[in-house]
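Collaborator request, handled under Task 6.
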Amino acid sequence: MADPTDSSRSGADKRHHRSGRESLIELVVIVVTALALALLIQTLLVKPFRIPSESMVPTLEVGQRVLVNRVEGRWGSPERFDVVVFKPPSNAATNSCAVSNGDEYLPGKVYRDESGDNLLGDKMPCPKGASGQHTENFIKRVIGMPGDRLKIVKGHAYVNGKMLNEPFVNPASSCDEPDTFSSDCTFSLEITIPPDSYYMLGDNRNASADSRYWGPVPAKNIVGEAFATYWPPSRIGGL
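C-alpha cells returned to the collaborator:
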C-alpha cells in the first residue's frame, strides 16, 4: 500500500519548486525594470558626468563627478554663467576654427598687416564652428549668448563692450599678460555670436580648449546643465 505521506511530500515539493521559480522570475523582472528605469532616467532626465580635464579648475577638479539636467538640455535654454555639458562642433577634434579667422568672417574687411601675416585674424575668437558634432562631451561655462558681441582680453570676456564679472575664473590663470598678438589669452577683435548658439569658456582660461579656438556651440548640441556634484563626498553640493 502506498504511503499517503509520499503524495503530500510530492505536492509540497512541487509547490516549493514553483515558489522558487516564481521568486526567480520576480527577481529577474525587478532587475530588468530597475535597469530600464535607470536607462530612461539617464536618457531623458539626469545624466552623471565625470570631469575629464583641468579646464574648469577651481570650480570642478579632474575626476569630480556631476549630475546633468537633461530636461533643461532638451527643452530649456541655458543662461549666462550656467555650467553645461555639450558636444562641441566637429572641428574641436583638431582644436581649430572652421574659418580662416578674419579672412572669411567678414569678407572685404582688412585683417592682414603690411607683411601679409594674418596677425589680426589670429587674435579674433573663433566666430564659427564646423557642421557636425565632435564625438566627445565637453563641460564648460556659458559666457556668450546668441547675438552678443564678444572679445577676450587678458583672459577676461568682454560682452557688448563691457567686461563681465567672472569671480569663478582661476586667479592663477587670469592671463594678465601684455595685450600682444603672441598671447593666447587675448582675442581682442570682437565677434558676434550667431543666433541659437552659445560661447563656452573654461574657468581655467589658460588651460582650456574652448569656443575661443573652435567656435560657438549650437543649442541643439547641448546635453544639459550641470546642477550638482556628488563625488568626491567632500565636494557634494550644488553648482
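The cover message to the collaborator said: "The first strand starts at residue 46 and ends at 50. The chain is about 25% helix and 25% strand. Please let us know whether this matches your experimental observations."
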